[in-house]
Amino acid sequence: MRALPICLLALMLSGCSMLSRSPVEPVQSTATPPKTETVKPKAPRPVPVKIYTKAEDLLGKPFRELGEVSGDSCQASNQDSPPNIPTARKRMQINASKMKANAVLLHSCEVTSGTPGCYRQAVCIGSALNVSAK
């Protein structure tokens, strides 16, 4: 009768010791693997989009209007950094380059309040143009 509790105790202790044993981790090589560089094809940089602030600057230059383009800078809450017009202008240039334009005739830039999703917002609007070289 005394052997039964001793056997159960030995069985429990051996079962617990098996749970705490960590799995054998594979030995990692100390040699550094050869580096293989993958060459990424470079994306062509977009053509810089020139901003014209006056329509008179376009006189004598052949151009085609591609449509209206805009850019914005949003201040989501009162604690965020304020919207700025240079960021809105840059985003307008990026949007114009997506339309394959090489110039923008700037109509207006303004800071507004009460736009849904923005506490304050800077917006620039212009016409995307494709100005041909003479």
From TrEMBL:
Q: Where in the cell is it found?
A: Cell outer membrane
Q: Does the keyword Acyltransferase apply?
A: no
GO cellular component assignments:
periplasmic side of cell outer membrane
Which segment of the chain is annotated as a signal peptide?
A: 1-19
Query: Which cysteine pairs make disulfide bonds?
Result: 74-118, 109-124
Question: Which InterPro entries would you find in this protein's record?
Answer: RcsF (IPR030852)
Task: Give the record's family classification.
Answer: Belongs to the RcsF family.
Chain's role: Essential component of the Rcs signaling system, which controls transcription of numerous genes. Plays a role in signal transduction from the cell surface to the histidine kinase RcsC. May detect outer membrane defects.
Q: What is this protein called?
A: Outer membrane lipoprotein RcsF
